Fold:
Amino acid sequence: MKFPNIKGKTVNGDRRTLPQDFEGQLNVVVLAFTQYQQEDVDSWMPFLDKVQRENRHVNVYEVPVVERMFFFQRMMLNHWMYSGIPDVDARNRTITLYTNVSAFLKSLNLTHIETIYTLLVDKEGKVYLRTSGAYTENNASDLMLKLSLLQPQNA
Structure:
C-alpha cells in the first residue's frame, strides 16, 4: 500500500507535497479527521517525540485530513489551528490536507473517520504499518518492532 500523492500546508503556511516532503527515511504519520480526535492524537505524542529523539531516521507528523472547503473556511480553520498550536515544532510537523476524504480513505484502505490512524511510511510513500485509535502499549510495541526491522543497523 502506498501513501497517496497529495498537497497540504503546515500550520505555519509552508506548502508540502506528501509523501515526497516527508523528511525522515521513515515517518510516523498520525491521521485525524475531526477536532474531537485531538485528544487521541495527543495521547501518542510523548511516545512519538521520544521515538523521534532516539531515532535520527524517523520523523513524526500530525496530519489533519479535512473535506475540501471554500477559501474563507480554510482560512478560518488555519487561523484556529495556528492559534491553538503555540509550539513552533508542532506547527511545522502538522500538515493539513484539504481533500476528498472518502477518496483519501479508500487510497489507504481505511474504513471510516471515527478514529485516528497511525501509519509508518517511508520517503517513497510505502506504508509499512497501520494502527488505529489512541496510544496503547500494544500499538506502540507494534510500531517499535516494525521500526527495529526497517532501520539500518547503525542508526
Summary: The CA atoms of residues 92 and 151 lie 24 Å apart. The chain has a mean pLDDT of 87.
